[in-house]
Amino acid sequence: MMAILVDTRLLLRRVKDFRSLMPRRNRVKEKWAATRPKNPPTRLALQHFDATYSVQLGNLWPSVRVALLSERKYGALVNNFSYEAVLANLQAQGCRDFISDTHTETQSCFEQDKAVEADKELGVSMKTSVNNSQQHSALQLSPSIKCVVFPRGDITRFKPARPDMHGLLGYYLMDAASVLPCLALDVQEGHSVLDLCAAPGGKTLVLLQTQAIRFLCLNDVSVSRTLRLKRVLNSYVPKQFLSDEMLRITSFDGTKWAEVESNTFDRVIVDVPCTTDRHSLMEDDNNIFSKSRTAERRRLPQLQLELLLAGIKAACPGGEIVYSTCTLSQIQNLSVVEQAVYLARENHGIHLEVVSLRPLTHMFRKTFHFTPDLQLGEMVVPHLAANFGPIYMCKLKRLT
Ligand SMILES: C[S@@+](CC[C@H](N)C(=O)[O-])C[C@H]1O[C@@H](n2cnc3c(N)ncnc32)[C@H](O)[C@@H]1O
């Protein structure tokens, strides 16, 4: 025993001697290690989520938590503008287009769902203060939007997309659940569309795949992110589809959109900044839970509310608005929609109806896990076998 102690001391002394011989630049920077924050933002995020989501999601939270802390799964949005046989190549790798897979099921699911909803309305009373008789409407999914995923439980990663002979990339990697708010928007031929918080442009690319939009207005308050959006568009869309007559790109504060125009667009997507739950748990850089961003984080629900109200005002009467986030937070999701519906009516005389997205969740129930029985809107929750989301979405229709 004594011999071991002596040996260890000798070894330590040698290490010390060795350190003094090392050039200064190669030494371990102990000072940095000592000042590393005890509670990095990722840990603060996890503490916050544990406290709130265990209450909000109950028994569901432990499995959602494991999925959130594991590697996310991507989908590849097929770029119809590319000149290569992108879809066939991806299918040959074992992927499937989760959207076309469900087209045939659409109508039967819708009928089935109407029956379920009718049963529910007889038995259970809704707790939300918004008039929550969510209107059903059969969704017509654009056949041009294609997004492929590897099968359930298969965590193969996609290779980066390569440019075709015209320099256009064949597919865009994104959370496959992010396609759902765009499908929910239900863009039809000749529509004018506003994407109020558009950068870096994932949802914009989905909307452009429909090739049905007459005029698309893209906005994001951040100038640098707007530049990124332009780069994305140039990498995926031929120049003739990006002309001034078809597209406008701005960097305004979306909350003040009514100062620019109102009662204008057939469709508005309001994909707001949020606590980006996955990113907050995984990356300390640029993390909304860092101490320096506490005020910004606390202000998020108010900003989200103002953005949604601006989107509602920008839509024309009869127009439809989809609100979406990538957080599980009830305060950033349902509460924002409830308040927006109330304030639109009280302060602006705009009456809205909540459009049920239950047909959509039925259609995609084999690909995504949805929170059961959400009172307002729908939410994809992460699951180890299908690690997409979180994505929350709620659709509103302007009646006046
Ligand atoms: C969740 S991201 C949008 C992602 C985008 N829709 C996509 O699919 O790639 C939220 C965006 O809102 C923007 N944003 C934040 N505050 C805003 C404001 N007041 N007006 C407009 N955009 C804002 C952020 O710069 C950020 O790019």
Q: Which helices and strands occur, and which strands form pairs?
A:
Layout: H1 2-21, H2 30-35, H3 41-57, H4 61-68, E1 75-78, H5 86-92, E2 96-97, H6 106-123, E3 147-149, E4 171-174, H7 179-185, E5 192-195, H8 202-209, E6 215-219, H9 223-236, E7 247-250, E8 265-271, H10 277-282, H11 294-314, E9 315-325, H12 334-348, E10 352-355, H13 358-363, E11 378-380, E12 391-398
Parallel strand pairs: 5-6, 5-8, 6-7, 8-9
Antiparallel strand pairs: 1-3, 1-4, 2-3, 9-12, 10-12, 11-12
Helix pairs in contact: 7-8, 11-12
Bound molecules: S-adenosylmethionine.
Quick tags:
single chain; about 400 residues; alpha/beta; Rossmann fold; eight-stranded mixed β-sheet; four-stranded antiparallel β-sheet; 13 helices; globular; binds S-adenosylmethionine
Concise structural overview:
This protein is α/β, with parallel strands linked by helices.
Structural account:
It comes from Channa argus (Northern snakehead). It is found in: Mitochondrion. One of its GO terms (cellular component) is mitochondrial large ribosomal subunit. The chain is α/β, with parallel strands linked by helices and 400 residues long. The longest helix is centred in the last third of the chain and has 21 residues. The protein is globular, with a radius of gyration of 24 Å. The protein has a single domain, classed as Rossmann fold (3-Layer(aba) Sandwich), CATH 3.40.50. The chain is built from 13 helices and 12 strands. α7 crosses α8 and α11 crosses α12. The N terminus is likely disordered. α9 links the parallel β6 and β7. 38% of the residues lie in helices and 15% in strands. The strands form 2 sheets. Strands 5, 6, 7, 8, 9, 10, 11 and 12 form an 8-stranded mixed beta sheet that branches. The chain binds S-adenosylmethionine. S-adenosylmethionine binds next to α8.
